[in-house]
Structure formats: C-alpha cells, structure tokens
Design brief:
- 71% of the residues lie in helices and 0% in strands.
- The protein has helices at residues 2-6, 22-32, 38-46, 58-113.
- It is built from 4 helices and no strands.
- By secondary structure, the chain is mainly α.
- The protein folds into 2 domains: 1-56, no CATH class; 72-114.
Length: 114
C-alpha cells in the first residue's frame, strides 16, 4: 500500500523499491537486465517518473511488456536449445560408453568360451 501512495506523492522514485516483495523485485531485476537497449531502459525508468504525465500510458505499457515478453521468450528458447544440445551430447556419450561396455563384455565372453 505504501507504494501505491508513495509514487503519486513523490515519496518513491527508486527503480526497485525496497517495499516490493522479493519475487516482484526479482522480476523487475530481470526486466532491468534488458538495459542494453536504451528503449527498454528508458521505458523502465519512465514508469517511476515523479510527475504522472511523464509516465507511459497503459497502452504503452502493454505494448512494451509484450515486446519484453517476446525478447524473454527468445532468450529462454535460445538457452533451452543450448541445454538440449548439451543433453543430446550427454546422451550420445552415455550410449558410446554403454556400447563400449557391451563390446568389452562380449570380448570377455568370447575369451572365456575359447
């Protein structure tokens, strides 16, 4: 509640207020990680402007949040592709080890049968 009254009365202008719950703070930190793009950094900072008319409209917020979600999905997808490729390599390595063990067992069996 403090935040709801703090922003309009100019008591809060921090990018991530300390009164935010931890999970919301973490989400905002992810949001601010997009600082490499001036547009998104400016957008995130503009939400906390002291004067309400300097803040983005809800339509602008909606559009920007959708763009950010698209970027995050792209980033997550690329990370998942890396994980999948790593898993694929790990699986192939395990298959190779298993095949080598089977060959070694067959060779031992063959030697014992002689």
């Amino acid at each position: 509640m403090q935040l709801l009254f703090g922003i309009p009365t100019n008591k809060y202008s921090s990018l991530i207020p300390t009164t935010f719950p931890e999970n919301v703070s973490q989400l905002m930190k992810v949001f601010f990680c997009l600082h490499y793009s001036y547009k998104y950094n400016y957008f995130s900072i503009s939400c906390w402007q002291s004067l309400p008319y300097n803040r983005p409209t809800f339509c602008e917020l909606y559009e920007q949040i959708n763009k950010i979600i698209e970027i995050m999905i792209y980033i997550i997808w690329n990370q998942m592709k890396k994980v999948i490729l790593h898993w694929d390599k790990e699986i192939r390595d395990c298959e190779r080890v298993m095949l080598e063990l089977i060959i070694a067992q067959n060779n031992q069996r063959f030697e014992l049968e002689k």
